[in-house]
Queue: 2 jobs
Job 1
Amino acid sequence: MPQTADDMDAVAVRTWCSLALDALGREREAIDAINVYPVADGDTGTNLYLTLESAAQAVEAVFAAHETGATAPVTADAVRAMAHGALIGARGNSGTILAQLLRGMAGELALGHDAGRLRRALAVAAASARQAVAHPVEGTVLTVAAAAADAAARTGDGARPAEVARAAYDGACTALEATPGQLAVLGRAGVVDAGGRGLVAVLGALVEALGGRAPAPARGTVAALPVRAAVPDDCAGGGPAFEVIYLLEASDEAVDRLRARLDGLGDSLVVVGGDGLWNVHVHVDDAGAAVEAGVEAGRPYRIRITHFGADRAHPHTEPVQRAVVAVVPGEGLRGLCEEAGATTVLARPGEPPASGELVDAIRRAHAREVVLLPNDAELRHTAAAAAEQARAEGVRVALVPTRAAVQGIAALAVHEPGRSFDEDVVAMTAAAGATRYAELAVAERQSWTMAGICQAGDVLGLIDGDVAVIGEDVAQTARDVLDRMLSAGGELVTLVLGEDLPGSLADELEEHVREGYLAVDTMVYRGGHRGAPLLIGVE
């Protein structure tokens, strides 16, 4: 549980971004399901997640840069990084508006971070987001943001930042519940606004970051999230054919002219940013003209054009039928998985891959059907967002929720491209689920664990994510972990050695299994990974 924060300092900003990313990860599918406005393309939750992911990564980069220094990041560093990360990573109409909301808040919080400044930040955020939209519509995220700012403004001068955040959250929840009565298309579909629902999740994370406790779910909003919204006829089609998004380096005057030109080309126009860097979003029938307008205004780059409702085929080669994309923690496992035919993404210690890297790997696999193996419990939301984005590009993606590399190895071992996609996914999921996983780690400091108090330098044996054994050396701890895992039975032990462990350890552990557990086979791989000295799987 986060600690209570007295003000909106850099640590609180970091915590907020992390909690908001987790919240959007949990609610992404539900938010996608109620996305009927402005286009019923079912990606609002995914776009919000990807935008916030970029913001959170930028904040983490600031803290990483200060790790070797004597000083910690200040609030101004953290909020500016958050705003810039959201700006360059904004996706879709909803993500672009969220980026402007965060930018508006950052401008104020960089000047101060007490309760009064937080109230002002929420007000500036709501106003700047509304200004960024060419034709604001009530009953959308703009309405929810304005209500949050108004509620925050009503808190007294003696209010703490956590109380201001709570007031904003409550105001946003109330406004969200009212959106079906403000926007007819929402009322006919029987849902609240998807972008507004995402903002409520972000504000709930702010309450938790400042107050130390997550707020109760907003009344009425959970019931308003159907499995899939019934899309009214008037938003099922008939709008512009393309979504065009790009970053743009241009002057304020050039952007003013660009807004006027793009407004004449299409709808859902949102232009956010400032200080020479902008994110441009518009729905048009003539995508080329929208890009040309950007060229005339300045230097557009990272141009993304999406054809609504159309699958995008690769322009040069015929896709293969099925592929596997796997995240791996080291070069040894990368080679093993690639020999088995998988496309891999390397996860380095402390640097988990972003959803964009997973999407790029899915594209590199160049297949109509892809099985995605994240091989890390912490990547579940990232992998889900990547899968959703790839599906929007016409790829059939199944996410097998592997929580460790040894589960991925088990899944890959039963992969059979010759059978049906569904049968293959079921078999791979079953193999992964039947594999218990463990890893050894070295304690960095004294702390309380499920197995008792550990000291810095102790070897920890984690089974299925929880500390089960505390030892003094790797070999004995590994034997103790194996004994605990095999006490429940098993047919195959998989050992993946880190790059610093001697091969003799594998021989010792193989002998230990052979002597103590009849009919249990052992497979040994060199993972080439840092961090965890040893990975263990028992099937």
Note: The CA atoms of residues 48 and 95 lie 5 Å apart.
Job 2
Amino acid sequence: MLAIRLLGPPAIERDGRPVRSPRGRKAWALLGYLLLAERPPSRKRLAELLFGQADDPLGALRWTLAELRRALGERGAFGGDPLIASLGDDVAVDIRALAGDDPEALLRIDGELLEGVQLESSPEFESWLSMERHRLSATVEARLHQVAIALLASGRPAEAIPYASRAVARNPLDEGNHELLVRSLAMAGDRAAARRQAAICEDILRRELGVAPSPALSESALSESALSESALSESALSESADADPRAGTATALPLSGRVAAAGQLDAGRAAIGAGAVDSGLECLRVAVAEAARCGDLALQARALAALGGALVHSLRGRDEEGAVVLHEAMLLATEAGERGTVVTAQRELGFIEVQAGRRDTAGAWLAGAHALAETDEELAAILGVRGMDASDIGDYASAFAHLHESIERAARCGDHRQRAWSLSILARAHLLRDEHAQAAVALADTLDVVRRERWMAFLPLPQTFQAEIDLRAGKTDLASEALESAWVLACRLGDPCWEGLAARGLGLLHSVRGDHGTAAAWLTEAAARCTRVPDRYQWVHAYVMDAAIATALDRDQGDKAVPMVASLAELAARCGMREFVVRAHLHRHRLGDPAALPSARLLAADIDNPALIRRLSSA
């Protein structure tokens, strides 16, 4: 068995023993590029990328390929044009194990991609390598995170601790990682260690980011089980007998048994839909506890899925708890043969991962849900999230295909809100491509549905996108009215995404009007709003940063832009948002970096966005 290690100091082993490595850093660089490229690269492109300064770039490429074949003992590897890395079945590559079935392999990963390899003479390759290092590091972190949550949900918190600890070590500024470790320690019975970890997290966040942790962190230190809150809610069953039924709660329902659980589930869903989040969550927790008490696995799974979805969508900052609940829902639903509940749980877990920018785990959950889905309603919802994910990473062909099918299926089954949701994401994709007329058509349909459905909790999103179209068309009064309305409603709803998008729009509005001080204040506010919870939507975070950087550069405020560009580049690379990686390089080009524009063109090669192509052409 031949093993290729690219994570950490690169090495090759045969049957567990080291073999002579290929000579030169460029051999390792070439091997890494060939194994990680999205599609086989041409020989000409590789020669330019890695050997552009050689007297005979193609000759240098041929020599290096021969050196790789010798080191690997694979005579038929790396043939054709474009080059295909056709390695045998007996060759194991560590980066491929990231998606494998052996979670313990994650604990053995140490170091970054091609550690120690630097090619100062190939700045375009260095840009690619930097992006891949961030992306793979984030992939490892996401897999550690996912394994820890799965172990928690299956009642094995002690086994979750090493995975959560590694996730914290890889990204100590992510509160969600700390919360997961704190919850694992508490559920394993080590409350003192859980409290210490919560304190460590608080100190790190205050020192490094100047922010306080969310309440979910300290509450997780009190967890006794994956559903400690649900267990605690069992007391509400007995207390409900004394409650006044005129108070508008579900306490007039029967106090025990399956009927009570089903009634609490219905009441919880209705309360959440009406915006009464706290009472809705309480009903759902009681439903979970009562279904568990009467031993109805199918009903318990449905209640868990509803509770997990509510934690994710209706109570920001609770995605970690929601993920654990959804995992348990999926496990129980699988045992009970509840296919639809498995689909719902997997779709919601995929949504969590999309928002967090964890692309590989998002894709796995959504593909699983898609494979099990049968109805138009199920498929419309899944395709909507898949379209959102594809749009986030700049895969517009896939985004349009998923979203159009989602819209069609939602219309066919009468799911008006899903249709409006997918239409808004479709409009966003057109807006990013400067296809304003198509974006406006999609937004008109979205706003019509939202108003007919009286879905005020969603209204700020299409309002903000429509305002941006109006602003680009010079209709500043219309844009101002829509943005102010979106901002007020977003603040009333307390939604960080809507607040961040509306504040971003107001910043751009004031910039167009020449009020640059107010514009900067609004853009600063936008950044603070969209990142004020640990489970932020990373695409919105990047969208806000990109606008703030462009505005600063337009005012010749390079000193202000430089740290933001670095943050945008790292965030975009970690979250697989390729278009924002390219935009970060374009900002660096404006700042005078001579290598930034060639790097931007290399990284944009597979992004089908006419607006981005025009920017690259005119830069």
Note: The beta strands are 2-5, 11-14, 17-18, 91-93.
